[in-house]
Fold Tetraacyldisaccharide 4'-kinase.
Amino acid sequence: MRPYAFLLYPFALLYDLITRIRNKFFDWGWLKSSESPIPSILVGNLRVGGTGKTPMVEYLIEYLKAKKNIATLSRGYGRKTQGFLQASGGSTPSDIGDEPFQIYEKYGNGISVFVGEDRVGAAFQIEEKKPNTEVLLLDDAFQHRSFRADLNILLTTYDQPFFSDFLLPMGRLRESRSGAKRANLIVVTKSPRGLDAQKRDRFKKKIQPYNPSVPILFSSIGYGQPVTLQPEHTFSDSVILVSGIADDSQLKSFVSNNYDLLETLNYPDHHDYKQEDFERMKQVYQQNASKKPVLITTEKDAVKVKSSCPAGFLREIPIFVLPIQVVFSPEDEQIIQSFIDQVIL
């Protein structure tokens, strides 16, 4: 909790009252909740940002893409447009948002990528526009109570679990911890690799008061081999890390443990890279030129760097992307896949 956050307690109480009343209105049917016209899986959280929703959506895509026709739907946080849009070859991060653009860049025409603030209206438009869609994956819609999905997957991180957090503005929760009761599955993301059964059980016991019957799974982040943005560049173990994500702690730890981390350039989550940012990258690169460094960045940041960097920048400065993926134990993977199969069969 932030220093002096207790001073914000009255505002958190007011926020709690408002969100509880809203949720009760949905629970009682006073506010309408519409069933999805397409079999749907929702990925969300109780906390603002940084729980690994996009990697989880990509995990679902990887599992489903050979079996079903997939569409993804998100709000498109940070985009400069409004309304219902489908990603296409001419789309940019400003048009559809960072994460949808990342997914479209990675999977191309293998899936359909949509954005829209009104999830219910967007789902019906997807059904009309893409009638062969068999599974709809929703990113960050856990608080969108007007949409009723077939499977609700709630994410919480191992280092910053929702049961230790507080409501905005005192903490980072969007709604009360009791909101976890709406989840069909809870996944503890960014967990340490090889977490023993005793630690898992202790963690589960802290979640279970909020949803006693839900399966609680644990996932870790796995990193792949760095991929160049320009084919003429070769990789070097001397790296400068560039990232604009909500929580870069695991990323920084992995890079420092596996490479010679020279410097780190941190930017806010969903950062729009500008001329001065690229000048700073170039300056730091030149300051370390004797070590022949490369810049490493995330998939999320790479799409924005590519779309907004000056002409010739990528040829002059070697930039590599560090892919990530969600990793489950065999037992937990079997559980989540069985839940997914119940939706799509």
